[in-house]
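Deliverable D4.2, example record:
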Amino acid sequence: MELLPTLSTFFIILSAILVAIGWRLVVKKQYKAHKKVMIAGALSALTFFIIYMSRTIFVGNTSFGGPAELEIYYTIFLIFHIILATSGAVFGVITLTLAFKRNIKKHQKIGPVTSVIWFCSAITGVMVYLLLYVFYDGGETTSLIKAILGT
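Output generated by the structure prediction step:
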């Protein structure tokens, strides 16, 4: 198992768990605890992003190493995950901004949508990790820097 992908996957799972706990706390009207847990969830997601981007830039992305006949399905699934993760991150920033600006009515409307997108993103992210590093041996890894410089 690769250390950085395993570590980043841990942080995305942690962020999803914290978001679920935060959702439960707000339902119970424990708003201060909700705020703390959701900030921790956001920091966990940010930690994931920093690890993921650092690995992507300096080490690289790993291609699918499973059977060739599954590669198209993996690619479609990966695109779906990327769309979820990107929209989840955008929704997350908007949701946090609304909360910090104390625009609670809008925060309450968008928060559940953001959480569901984030849960789906985390689940699909774990599946991508499992497909790349657990179920199959990872394929070739090429760093972004090497790809840009052509080395």
